[in-house]
Amino acid sequence: MSITIYSPDQINALAEACAPADQFGRFCFDGFGVMLSDEQLEAHARLGEPGPRKPGERKENYVSGGQRSGKTVELWLWHARANLYKTGVDNADRAYWNNYLYKTLALAPSTDLTLKLWQVGDEMSKGASDAQFDKAHRSSRGGAFLHLFKAGKLNQWPVILFDNGSRVDFRSTEGWATRLEGDQWWFISWDEWASQPDREIPFVKTDVLMGRARDHDAKLVYAAWPKASTERHLMAVIREIEKGQNTDSQVIYLSAAKAYFTNMDALAVERRKKDEAQWKRTVLGEPAGGASIEFKPPEIENMVVGGLKFPSLREEGYTYFHSWDIGLSHDATVGISWRIPVINGRPQVHPQAKARIVNVTELRPSPSLTLD
């Protein structure tokens, strides 16, 4: 990497020039040596500045990206931009701005996944990220802002500290995100959010993150690629948006097929090997149906009686089926009892003979004791 020495005046001038929202591309290239794809630039335009919401912006922003579409790099650059500018803090009192402890929060369902974003920031601070490498010149591009932050630890937690006193905190959301009690952040990202245990996702979103983002009305960014086993969570959000039931959220897609940095020869092999559903999920970053291929909402509505109170006592003319989902790690164990109509001596379920849930039992997990 060729080393360029920037004077404080040059750095300040560049920071000022990159401050407008439409200069995010220059901020990334001149400041960090990262050239963004058109889709990454569009994703930033749709998100708006990372930090507090402005009028008309969305609270919850779902970034659905294909594998190697640049999702994690952009997450890091959003955190870096918020911290370098302390986005949202009033700078009329310069001493207050300088001394203010500004923080953003980077989350993932496990410690290992959380460290992936921390690693991206660490590599970038050293000019050693793939995103910074110029293949034509066979060298790292470098950047004017690389010396302004450093990866490290604060007590037992990974952190990235900036020279202006701000920082990115890294935490795991394992165990219902209990590690996040009693603090506030200006911008929050949750990488691979859909891999959180199913029954914890709504709780973490509404009971934990909404409170942690309340004081500053911080934007929430949920990022993941749509796995077949988890994409139903994103699909539920998409349906709510399409029906006009959710005006606080938006879905932003990042496609590896449109990224200039994608190895197109390798991608051509994938195109020949993958079916349409695999291609949509892993490359285009779009959900392809998931479990709803087998259990579409209209089918469930036709086969199951909803809206009835339970628990319910045993009744003649029905048989009963009990199922248990044994929770591992910090997930809950859930049991469901179904009432199945018996017609002509046989259990049957169809639109004229619907099943219904007559009891549900949930065994909440222990924060410390696990089965795995």
What are the main properties of this structure?
32% helix; 15 strands; 372 residues; eight-stranded mixed beta sheet; five-stranded mixed beta sheet; alpha/beta; 12 helices
Q: Tell me the span between the first and last alpha carbons.
A: 45 Å
What class would the helix/strand composition place it in? alpha/beta
Overall geometry comes to: elongated
| Averaged pLDDT | 90
Radius of gyration, whole Å? 24 Å
Estimate the strand proportion. 15-25%
Approximate helicity band: 25-40%
Strand tally, please?
A: 15
Q: Could you characterize what this model shows?
A:
The protein has 372 residues and is an alpha/beta fold. Helix content is 32%, strand content 22%. The chain has twelve helices and 15 strands. It has helices spanning 8-18, 24-32, 38-47, 71-85, 94-99, 111-125, 174-177, 201-212, 232-242, 264-273, 276-284, 297-303; strands at 60-65, 103-108, 133-134, 139-140, 149-154, 157-162, 167-172, 187-191, 219-224, 249-254, 304-305, 318-325, 333-343, 346-347, 355-363. The strands form three sheets. Strands 5-6-7-2-8-9-1-10 form an eight-stranded mixed β-sheet, sandwiched between helices. A hairpin with a 2-residue loop joins strand 5 and strand 6. Helix 1 packs antiparallel against helix 2 and helix 4 crosses helix 6 (111-125). The mean pLDDT is 90.
In short:
The protein has 372 residues and is of the alpha/beta class.
SSE order and pairing:
Elements: H1 8-18, H2 24-32, H3 38-47, E1 60-65, H4 71-85, H5 94-99, E2 103-108, H6 111-125, E3 133-134, E4 139-140, E5 149-154, E6 157-162, E7 167-172, H7 174-177, E8 187-191, H8 201-212, E9 219-224, H9 232-242, E10 249-254, H10 264-273, H11 276-284, H12 297-303, E11 304-305, E12 318-325, E13 333-343, E14 346-347, E15 355-363
Parallel strand pairs: 1-9, 1-10, 2-7, 2-8, 8-9, 11-15
Antiparallel strand pairs: 3-4, 5-6, 6-7, 12-13, 13-14, 13-15
Helix pairs in contact: 1-2, 4-6
